[in-house]
Amino acid sequence: xxxxxxxxxxxxxxxxxxxxxxxxxxxxxxxxxxxxxxxxxxxxxxxxxxxxxxxxxxxxxxxxxxxxxxxxxxxxxxxxxxxxxxxxxxxxxxxxxxxxxxxxxxxxxxxxxxxxxxxxxxxxxxxxxxxxxxxxxxxxxxxxxxxxxxxxxxxxxxxxxxxxxxxxxxxxxxxxxxxxxxxxx
Length: 185
Description:
The chain is an all-alpha fold. It has helices at residues 6-34, 49-75, 85-111, 117-143, 147-150, 153-175, 177-182.
């Protein structure tokens, strides 16, 4: 373990800043809702409750993508001698960029209460297993050994719970009255 680098500070500030933005937006939505006496508590609206938790988890997911890409990149140091590895590495970097771009777009749409948030979140959910399978297929075909040699039980143990857990959030975004009333822009 080395010293606390600038990257550690940036990640820490991004986590705290993302949570602060979500809390601020949820509080501002609540204060504007309380000023209208005719509205009452019957309609859920604004970033709060489970929707706020979803956006916090989305922020943490983006940071997880950045951290895993960084750790993957550190692991590539001794692999440049392997034939065809450069294309596999560039493909992995490209897939991380796609995941990061979509994750940031989903977070932006959620914080700005865009209608497209629900669809983008669904596409993000679908993209996770697709990129996993695509990455294994590319690596297996270029490095030899095939798909089954690269697929481990540990990888499936990480993928299936993640797909199931995010699938529950996809269901929430489709069924929630709060999401329907909030995502109107």
